[in-house]
Amino acid sequence: MNKRPAEIKPATGKLGVLIPGMGAVATTFIAGVEAIRKGHAKPIGSLTQMGTIRLGKRTDGRSPAVKDFVPLSSLDDLVFGGWDVFPDTAYEAAKKAGVLSNEDLAKVEGFLSGIKPMPAVFEPEFVKKLHGTHVKKGKSKLDLAEQVMADIAAFKKQHGCERMVMVWCGSTEVYRQAVGVHQTLAAFEQGLRDSSPDIAPSQIYAYAALKSGMPFANGAPNLTLDFPAMIELAKKMNLPICGKDFKTGQTLMKTILAPGFKARLLGLEGWYSTNILGNRDGEVLDDPESFKSKEVSKLGVLEHILQPHLYKDLYSNIHHVVRINYYPPRGDNKEGWDNIDIFGWMGYPMQIKIDFLCRDSILAAPIVLDLALFLDLAQRVGFSGIQEWMSFYFKSPMTPEGLYPEHDLFIQLMKLKNTLRHLRGEELITHLGTEYYD
Ligand SMILES: NC(=O)c1ccc[n+]([C@@H]2O[C@H](COP(=O)([O-])OP(=O)(O)OC[C@H]3O[C@@H](n4cnc5c(N)ncnc54)[C@H](O)[C@@H]3O)[C@@H](O)[C@H]2O)c1
């Protein structure tokens, strides 16, 4: 130990996990947690459940499980709720999403059937392909935010939750940039009172969560948290926030491969990515305005990893294209193709082809679990504002104004684990390693 560990409040009592958007990702996450609690499945893909963390020197032989190293809520203490624009129970929604087999769903049917979404805050203007009916009515956007706060308070009381976290798993809203109402908390609150058309439903949930003392994570690429007013509110309430857009599928592969090309100084001429996807997410992303949010989130990755301004000969002229095509027969089982044109010694070209037959929600579910548990840890430690150490989970990690995000998956993992070591007063691992040769 090199310093005193941080004071961390214990993870006792129930942790409420509230989710706006109870579709494929949310129901796969909830069903999985219940299946794991009953011993039917293993939490594969979850760092909080299956990961280990090396402490001290390589020769020390200390690699505890992450969940034994930092105090995290036990899966048994998680309770789930949420909102959706459709009234389907979590069981019905999971059936429609078609991610998990009937056999797996049957084992948790009773549990999922008991989870009924609360009526949503929804505006069709922000998700054009959806026509939900299970929607709140309000005199103003402030009134809607207050209704969400009342839902949160009622849920907390009903389930006896000690603490709560919110993770947005709702559909991708249309692309918007921050404008006047997003600049200060006062302007945002005035915008709520005036029902400003610039305030999206996801922002109303985020506002209600933070006002209710709940940390918030944004799993979609829409503008929900990453503007000055929301960061101001998170700081004021001393709450952690993170986002955005779960890093799964093609972008996960990109942030695994691109750091390797850069490490070996292999040049890149083009990266063409296309997907076919047949779930509701795919349908929503068929709308160009929702796709724009996704595209911006997906395109940023290569630029930041490859740093063309530092490696002009290798990366200054990259053709990066990302396409998503809605193709119903595939359901949630996306197929993503990548054609990567790289070049090596003396400029000789080479190609790499990837055909990833992936299951989006299977990749996203463990991320939701880790985010819920780490956000709760962060709140018990007293961290507030943007949690950069959770960038590991996102396609477009939030950073303060003027700081570029770190996209390299391996640097992100090191940052996450070093944050945990730092919390526990352990030596940070720098990989310098001279001590082995002294
Ligand atoms: N699956 C992945 O790998 C992955 C990766 C990154 C991001 N995401 C994002 O996560 C989100 C969820 O993905 P999914 O596959 O579960 O989609 P989905 O369409 O199955 O579920 C989204 C749900 O949100 C509901 N919804 C929409 N607007 C709402 C609102 N205002 N309030 C409450 N509910 C609302 C919809 O009715 C739907 O049930 C999407 O935005 C998606 O882009 C998913």
The best one-word shape is globular
Distance between the termini: 21 Å
The major pleated sheet works out as: 7 strands, parallel
**How much of the sequence is in beta strands?**
15-25%
Overall average pLDDT:
94
Structural class: alpha/beta
Uncertain segments are none
How many H/I helical runs? 16
- Helix share bin: 25-40%
Give the ordered list of helices and strands: EHHHEHHHEHEHHEHEHEHHHEEEHEH
Strands of the widest sheet, in order across it, are 3-2-1-4-5-6-11
Query: Radius of gyration, Cα only, in angstroms?
Result: 22 Å
Bound molecules: nicotinamide-adenine-dinucleotide
Secondary structure: number of strands: 11
List the helices and strands and how they pair.
Layout: E1 14-20, H1 24-37, H2 47-50, H3 66-69, E2 78-84, H4 90-97, H5 102-107, H6 109-113, E3 118-119, H7 141-159, E4 161-168, H8 185-193, H9 201-211, E5 216-218, H10 228-236, E6 240-243, H11 249-263, E7 267-277, H12 280-284, H13 288-306, H14 312-315, E8 319-326, E9 335-343, E10 349-357, H15 360-381, E11 385-386, H16 409-423
Parallel strand pairs: 1-2, 1-4, 2-3, 4-5, 5-6, 6-11, 7-8
Antiparallel strand pairs: 7-9, 9-10
The chain binds nicotinamide-adenine-dinucleotide.
